[in-house]
Amino acid sequence: MNPTNKPRALKRSAQRALQGSLVNTIACGFLTAGLVLYGPVYAQEPEATDDAKQRNVRDVEAESFRGKESYQRTDDSKQVEEINLKASSAQQISDAAKQQNATQARSTATRQQVREQQPTSELGSAQQNTAKEREITASEPQVKDSSAQEKEIAAQATENKAQAAESAADATVQQQATAAQPSKRPLAPPRIPPSPITANLTTSAVPPLPVKAVIPSVTNANQNSNFEPSELMLVSADMAAAKQAASYLNRYGAQIKTRSALANLGLVMSVFRLPEGEDTLAIIRQIQTDLPNLQTDTNQRYQLQNSRKTYGASMVGWPQAPSCIAQNALHVGVIDTPVNTAHPALLGANIQAKSFIKGEPASATHGTAVASILVGSAQAGFSGLLPQAQLTAAAVFRQRGERVEATTDSLLLALDWLVQQQVSVINLSLGGERNRVLAQAIEQVLAKRIAVVAAAGNNGPQAEPVYPAAQAGVIAVTAVDAAGRLYDQANHGSYIEFAAPGVDIWAADNAQGGHYHTGTSFAAPYLTAALAVANIQQLQNQAQDKGPAGKDPQYGHGLLTMPPLCQ
C-alpha cells in the first residue's frame, strides 16, 4: 500500500467502527421502543407464540442491517466525489501553470522582437523601449494566489495582450519599411499624353504648312503617290526617346518596322507600319495633333526637279579653272539618283558613291548629269565647275513603275552619311511636300554649319512651295535661260534665294554622251559650287538683281554672279 494512502485507510476503518456502534445503539433503541409499544399487545394477546416473536426480532435486525448498508454506500459515494473534485482541481492548477509559462515565454519573445525590429533611433529613445517592456510585463497575470478559473482567465487575457503587442510591433516595422522605400505603384498613363518627349529636337522653328497645301481626301489617301502607304516616320533625340515615343504610337496601331541611329545627325530614325486598310494621312494628322512634340510625318516621296531637257553653265561668270579654286580642298555632297562613275565625263574625277535605295534603282541619268556639272572633265567635253573637288554622292532614288522617287528614310540615311564624310555643302536636286521628319534632320545638318542647297521646283508659278527648298535655312534656287528669263515652269515664292542657269544646260547622260537638260534641278549645282568657294553674304551682295527691285518671289536676290575669287 502506498504510504500516502495509509492514513486514509485507517480513517475509513475508524469511521466504519463508529458507524457500526451507532447502528447497534439505534437497533437496541428500536427494540426497546418496540417492547414498550407492543408490551400491552403481548399482554392482551397471550396466544402469540415464541416463533412469532422470533420472526419480529429477525425483521427488526434485517431492517437495521439494510439501513447500515445504505449509509455505508452513501459514505463511499461522497468519498469518491471528493477524490474526483481534488483531481479535477489539481488538473486545472496544472493547466493554469502551463498557460502561465507559455504566456511568459511569448511575452519574453515579444519583448525581444520589439528590441530587434525597433531600434532606438526609429522608436524615439531607449525610454520608449523600456516603457513598452514594462507595459508587456504589467500585462502578465498574477496566477500564484488565484483560483484555477481565475488563473485560466488571466492567462487567456495575457495571451491576447501579448498577441496584440506583437501585431502592433509588426505593423510599426512594416510602416517604417514602407516609408523608407519609394512607392512602386504603377501610374496609369493618360490615354493621350500631352508631352511625351521633353527633349528639344529643333534649333529653329519649322515653317507651318502652306495655307493652300493639298491634303488628299480620305477616300484616296492611301493611294496617293506622294508618300509610302501605311508608313509613319519619326525622329527622336536618342534611343530612349525613340522607344518612349514608340510606346505612345502603339496606341494608334503603329508597329515598328525599322529603327536606325543616325549618329552624325544626332538623331534616331524610326519607321512604323500603320494598320492596313486605314487612312494613313488621317492617322498621322491625328498623331500630330495629339502629340505635337513628336517629330512624326509620312514617309514622303520626292521627285527629280527636271523637265528632261538640259542646261549650259556660262552665265554666272565662273572663272575658268582659277588656281585659287584648284588649290583648295573642296568637298561637296550630292543626294540624287545613282551616278555612272564610268561615264567619260567623270573618268578621273574624285567621286565616292554609296547607295541607300530601297527597291529597284532608278536610271543614273539625272545623278550623272548633276555630277558632270560639278566635277565633269573638260577633256571629255563637260567642263565641270569644280573639277578638282571631291564629290560624295548618295543614291536614294528608285524606279517604281513610271515614277522615279525617293523616300524620307533613305534621305535621312544619306544625310547622316554625308555629315560623317564632312562635306561642306549638300546639293538636293529634289522636292516634295513638307515633312517634319526630314525638316528635323536638315535642322541637324544646318546646325553643323553645312550648307544645304535645294531646287525651287518645276510645278509652275501658282504651285505650292516645294520642300525642302521652302524650309528655313535651306537655300532655294530657281532656273533661268540663256537670256536671263525665268523658267516658265519654275515655282514662285518668298523662299526663293537665287536664280541660276537651268534651261538647256549641256551635261552628261547615263550612256557615253550627253544632252541638254532643263529644270531647277540643274540650276542647284551652280549655287552648290559657288557656296563651296564663297559665303552666302558674298553671293547675296554680288547677285544681279532681276525682276522687281530687291528680293522678290521670282528671282530671290537675283541671278547668281560669282565674286572675284582670285585677286
Automatic annotation (TrEMBL):
<keyword id="KW-0378">Hydrolase</keyword>
<dbReference type="InterPro" id="IPR000209">
    <property type="entry name" value="Peptidase_S8/S53_dom"/>
</dbReference>
<feature type="active site" description="Charge relay system">
    <location>
        <position position="521"/>
    </location>
</feature>
<keyword id="KW-0472">Membrane</keyword>
<feature type="transmembrane region" description="Helical">
    <location>
        <begin position="21"/>
        <end position="43"/>
    </location>
</feature>
<keyword id="KW-0812">Transmembrane</keyword>
<dbReference type="InterPro" id="IPR015500">
    <property type="entry name" value="Peptidase_S8_subtilisin-rel"/>
</dbReference>
<feature type="active site" description="Charge relay system">
    <location>
        <position position="366"/>
    </location>
</feature>
<keyword id="KW-0645">Protease</keyword>
<dbReference type="InterPro" id="IPR050131">
    <property type="entry name" value="Peptidase_S8_subtilisin-like"/>
</dbReference>
<dbReference type="GO" id="GO:0004252">
    <property type="term" value="F:serine-type endopeptidase activity"/>
</dbReference>
<comment type="similarity">
    <text>Belongs to the peptidase S8 family.</text>
</comment>
<keyword id="KW-1133">Transmembrane helix</keyword>
<dbReference type="InterPro" id="IPR036852">
    <property type="entry name" value="Peptidase_S8/S53_dom_sf"/>
</dbReference>
<keyword id="KW-0720">Serine protease</keyword>
<feature type="compositionally biased region" description="Low complexity">
    <location>
        <begin position="154"/>
        <end position="186"/>
    </location>
</feature>
<feature type="domain" description="Peptidase S8/S53">
    <location>
        <begin position="330"/>
        <end position="534"/>
    </location>
</feature>
<feature type="compositionally biased region" description="Basic and acidic residues">
    <location>
        <begin position="50"/>
        <end position="84"/>
    </location>
</feature>
<feature type="compositionally biased region" description="Pro residues">
    <location>
        <begin position="187"/>
        <end position="196"/>
    </location>
</feature>
<dbReference type="GO" id="GO:0006508">
    <property type="term" value="P:proteolysis"/>
</dbReference>
<dbReference type="Pfam" id="PF00082">
    <property type="entry name" value="Peptidase_S8"/>
</dbReference>
<feature type="compositionally biased region" description="Polar residues">
    <location>
        <begin position="86"/>
        <end position="130"/>
    </location>
</feature>
<feature type="region of interest" description="Disordered">
    <location>
        <begin position="48"/>
        <end position="203"/>
    </location>
</feature>
<feature type="active site" description="Charge relay system">
    <location>
        <position position="336"/>
    </location>
</feature>
<protein>
    <submittedName>
        <fullName>S8 family serine peptidase</fullName>
    </submittedName>
</protein>
<feature type="region of interest" description="Disordered">
    <location>
        <begin position="542"/>
        <end position="567"/>
    </location>
</feature>
